[in-house]
TrEMBL record:
GO terms for molecular function: DNA-binding transcription factor activity; transcription cis-regulatory region binding. This is TetR family transcriptional regulator. InterPro entries: Homeodomain-like_sf, HTH-type_TetR-like_transc_reg, HTH_TetR, Tet_transcr_reg_TetR-rel_C_sf, TetR_C_16. Signal peptide: none annotated. Residues 12-72 form the HTH tetR-type domain. Residues 35-54 bind DNA.
Amino acid sequence: MARRTGRRPGNPDTREAILTSAREAFAERGFDGASIRTIAAGAGVDPALVHHYFGAKNKLFMAVMNVPFDPDELLPQVLADGPDGVGERLVRTFLRVWDSPAGAAGVALLRSVISNEWTARLMREFVVTQILRRAMAGLDLPPAEAPLRTSLVASQLVGLAMARYLLRIEPLAGVPAEVAVVAIAPTVQRYLTGDLTDVFAAHPVPGAPAEVSTGTPPTA
């Protein structure tokens, strides 16, 4: 009798096979480059089965990362009142998640990022594509500025998580969350929406507006 080919039956190993394939695809190709079809092929299943288990691709990515929060729930709250104060809302929401019982999973993930390059790639993709890039899109900023702004915000938030929760550098590790918000939010706000003309002029970014990328100050 010929061996049956095609979609693998729904068994306890199927979900893990999909996650393994997705983990490899996201690490190698990034979130945008990894298609559901490619992930399904790597797991030996039909693409419809991936949707059955995980839904949309971003939900599959979240399952791979095992993050203790859902950006789909938190980002609308951060962006609800527009650009003014978005840095404060972002930092406050970030700290609320990390200070909750679910934050332990985030600390474990940070430890893994330090020791595992694949996990570091996945974390980088997750932070950029699922949080910061989506936040930037909601602020209606020039697209050419988004990559640098995104990386600057990431440096603040990842650095905050490392210092407060993993390395536990005092007094930052022990101060109330609101103290950290007051100290850090203005910098995050500047990176998100502030005037970075001097930064772009000193360090041209591919795709940036001509008057910025050439270092020529904009005319009044």
